[in-house]
Amino acid sequence: MARGGKRRGCLVPLLIILVVAAVVIGGWYILAGRVPTPEPLPPGPEKPASQPASCPDVQVVAIPGTWESSAADDPYAPAANPASLMLNVTGPLQNQFDASRADVYTVPYVAQFSNPVAFPPDGQQSYNNSRGAGTAATNDFLVQRHAECPLTSYVLTGFSQGAVIAGDVAASIGNGTGAVPADLVLGVGLIADGRRDPAYGITVGPSVAGVGAELSLNGLKLPGLTMTGPREGGFGKLNDRTYQICAPSDGICDAPAGAMNPGNLMTSLPRLAEYYNNPVHAMYNSFQVDSDGTTATQWVAQWAADMINGAPTPPHS
Asked: Mind telling me which residue stretches traverse the membrane in this protein (predicted)?
């Protein structure tokens, strides 16, 4: 009896510790955030004969990468990170076009990526929260712009985390649940998309054998970090208007397929460090995509300019 009671006495503190640990871990997951479930957005207005004179013919929407924006940044003169890669795309477009022809809007959002296992916490917003905030900010702007300017057409572009967001927004539009009609989207340009799927979109530059990190690590769930796998349905109606640039060995967009499968671990492990220690990912302003020496950012800027030059000029009233 005494021995049994002693064992039960030892079990009580252990159970308390387990319960406390479960509560702490559960709270950690809740505070770190989950990837929000996409919801179909309400349909926009029917196309009128003309739109207000204040409306641009084309709306460019650019989404910066991790640590290259902030929620308080100026969407028309971004300064949160003077070295932001997307400035090499948006700057030339703003210099080339009058705002009445092409309004260039850089989405301000958290743009952070906390280390999910850092202790103490590193003070950054989680990838899930940041990505969710960026997606919401992009969709909110598109919904508002389309309500005001129902004949305006769109060019979407993004880098890294911004490419994931732009790609997700494009996928929802292309599959009929997005913020604007698919026929108003002139094109989508993605640099280093973490959900790059070779089955969808058009590759610019060298082909790479790998996939986006979110496909490579599909199923991985850590506090605030959910690898969501491929985009169901790809880019839908925008598949033939979506362009992907990925530098070989960039672990964000050229990661080993099926890295989480036990049989692939031995070949995948040497490359997993690229998710964090990845100098290639920071070199797209010099990464050449053709034999003429055109860099990734130059290509996207020129491609966007071509889309703008060829876009219709809607009637204004």
From this structure: 12-31
